[in-house]
Amino acid sequence: xxxxxxxxxxxxxxxxSDAAKNLLRTVIDNGRLVALPEIATQFQALxxxxxxxxxxxxxxxxxxxxxxxxxxxxxxERRKHRQRIAQRDHETRFRx
Length: 96
Known about the structure:
Elements: H1 18-29, H2 36-51, E1 53-56, E2 59-60, H3 66-80, E3 84-87, E4 93-94
């Protein structure tokens, strides 16, 4: 059973804004629900560009501690001239 856009909420349970409901309703009405992940990706890129945030995932061949993560983020902020670097994961990825 498909839920109506008017009754939708975020994964945290918070209600959607009217603008979000309208977008979701339009996407569903036009049969483009499969495009929703790409729409979300593009929207996040626009928000990041407007707010001066860069998304980053740190991958390392060796485990790194919080101080090293902070150093990498600071270096990226200086290099990219961004206000802050948003770390998508709460854990750094380790690839042996």
